[in-house]
Specification:
The structure holds two protein chains of two kinds.
Chain A lengths: L4 E3 L2 E4 L5 E6 L6 E8 L3 E9 L2 E5 L6 E5 L5 E5 L8 E8 L10 E2 L3 E5 L1
Parallel strand pairs in A: 2-11
Antiparallel strand pairs in A: 1-3, 3-8, 4-5, 4-9, 5-6, 7-8, 9-10, 9-11
Chain B lengths: L2 E5 L2 E5 L4 E8 L5 E7 L5 E7 L5 E3 L5 E5 L4 E6 L8 E8 L7 E2 L3 E6 L1
Parallel strand pairs in B: 2-11
Antiparallel strand pairs in B: 1-3, 3-8, 4-5, 4-9, 6-7, 7-8, 9-10, 9-11
The chains are: A mainly beta, B mainly beta.
Chain lengths: ~120, ~110
């Protein structure tokens, strides 16, 4: 099976702009989670989607949003970018509950740089 | 809320020596526990996990970890380090039936020839 794919891999944006990142989960996986990784804050949970519904959300401002489509693909959006949003954004997918013991498989990430 | 503490942000070992990475968690009930590895410019790769059952868990690349409830620990070991083990390692926990992972700060492993 193909792994989790994320596009684009690298992105440079200017303060105040918005950005959309895309994630395609492993085939058959229905849960998609997003994480932000920075040198200062480490790995932090953003949100998790299952069957097009957000089930859990981390402690991030409303500028961070996401959605999931019927084919389980997910996007996250960051509006009004700030310099502090520069980070590696990681997407992870998991099989359906009861089949996985809740393990998550990560994509390679999207490196976002805000200038 | 879950929290994870990884003792030591950097560990240096000689090739062939034991690798020991420490992880402690805070939780009122035993959570699900995971170790991930991250190579430069890559995502996270799952090394092993503990959910229920046997407390000694074997993972990929010769790594294993032992869940000790009394010590709220989940330390990662590998008997003999290889140069390819140089990477950053993250311990993570989630509450049962939850997909939200809480990560430790990470431990960078360097392997000396």
């Amino acid at each position: 099976k193909a792994g989790v794919t994320q596009t684009p891999r690298y992105l440079i944006k200017t303060r105040g702009q918005q950005v959309t990142l895309s994630c395609s989960p492993i085939s058959g996986h229905r849960s998609v989670s997003w994480y932000q990784q920075t040198p200062g804050q480490g790995l932090q949970f953003l949100f998790e989607y299952f069957s097009e519904t957000q089930r859990n959300k981390g402690n991030f401002p409303g500028r961070f949003s996401g959605r999931q489509f019927s084919n389980s693909r997910s996007e996250m959006n960051v509006s009004t970018l700030e310099l502090g949003d520069s980070a590696l954004y990681l997407c992870a997918s998991s099989p359906s509950p009861g089949r996985s013991s809740y393990e998550q498989y990560f994509g390679p990430g999207t490196r976002l740089t805000v200038t | 809320a879950q929290s994870v503490t990884q003792l030591g942000s950097h560990v240096s070992v000689s090739e062939g020596a034991l690798v020991l990475l420490r992880c402690n968690y805070s939780s009122s009930v035993p959570p699900y526990l995971f170790w991930y590895v991250q190579y430069p410019n890559q995502g996270l790769q799952l090394l092993l996990k503990y959910t229920t059952g046997a407390t000694l868990v074997k993972g990929i690349n010769g790594f294993e970890a032992e869940f000790k409830k009394s010590e709220t620990s989940f330390h990662l070991t590998k008997p003999s380090a290889h140069m390819s083990d140089a990477a950053e390692y993250f311990c993570a926990v989630s509450e049962k039936w939850d997909y939200k992972l809480s990560f430790g700060a990470g431990t960078t492993v360097t392997v000396r020839a």
